[in-house]
What does this fold into?
Amino acid sequence: MSEVATRIPKPVLRGLHNATIKRNLIVSGVLCTVAVIAMKVMHNDPKVRDYAEFYKTYDANKAFQRMKDAGLLQSVKD
It folds into this structure.
């Protein structure tokens, strides 16, 4: 009977709260860093690349003339 009913060791509670907070801060810092890098790579970089590609071939005068010919600009008269 003594082999079955052994004593369970007491849990170490001294400093547990500080250790848990430290671990949670480290995990949250790593997760925030991963989220920022993922957002940059998956959202911002493609957007910047698309804008750069669009403005390589964009002609403002041609777009103005197209809007003027369509009658969208009321203040511009021929």
Summary: The longest helix spans residues 16-57. The chain has a mean pLDDT of 91. The CA atoms of residues 29 and 35 lie 10 Å apart. The chain has two helices and no strands.
